[in-house]
Amino acid sequence: MDLSQAKHAFITGGASGIGLGIADALAKRGIAVTIADINEEALKEVLATRGNQFRGIHLDTRDRDAWQKAKDEAEGAFGPVDILVNNAGIAPNGQPFASMDPESFDRIVAINLTGVANGVFAFAGEMCERGKGHIVNTSSQAGLTAAIPGVGAYAVAKFGVTALSENLRMEMAEHGVGVSVLCPGLVKTNLAANTVRIGGDVRKYMPAMPESDVTPADVGEMVAEGIEQDAAYILTHKDVWPGIENRMNAIKAACDYRKNA
After folding, report:
1. Hey, which residues are catalytic here?
2. Does the pTM exceed 0.90?
3. Which CATH number fits domain 3-260: 3.40.190.170, 3.40.50.720, 3.40.50.300, 3.30.2350.10?
4. Which of 50, 63, 161, 193 lies 20 to 30 A from 249 at CA?
């Protein structure tokens, strides 16, 4: 998508972390930005440091009725949404499936997967009608390969986002609408704090993770570039392939076995 032709972006989880990094990158390119977030205090803090190019909307992405209200409010201020970024999410709970709290599983799937689908339900139809737009859905490296114990519920949701995005890309292409799936690795964000704020569990049993030198601003630039290139996948780290390759090799081996059986 030619970003010079885009006028309005709607970004969930936009008041901090990757969402805010994307918002700033798009605003720098002259695009008006609606940031939607469940954290009203964070929204106020961001809007106090940005100009009239930004608007904020309180939104729980699990609430489908609230999505329609948010859409109407955003488009009433800035016009039709050209870029939708379904970014809101929470962290892994660190719990193995055998002892996982089912409510924790439901929460992770509801926010990380169903919340993304709700954004698509709200905006994709009108984008098709206009024959214009781009959708970015935030998955994860864990949505490409499940390689760490304790991220099972998170991986289920993120694999779902990847699958949703791949199918949506095929469906939207004939209407002139692009779709990208963002698969970040470790990024310097406040994801853990935000997860706890809404009652979630954070990596109770997971090993300590290394510090990341990738910032939300870095990811914002990667996403802007990915939209311009109509990239199917937007990755943030260079060392992703080995884990994915192991998974693909196992699938290929199973295919070869069946072919030769």
Report:
1. 154
2. yes
3. 3.40.50.720
4. 161
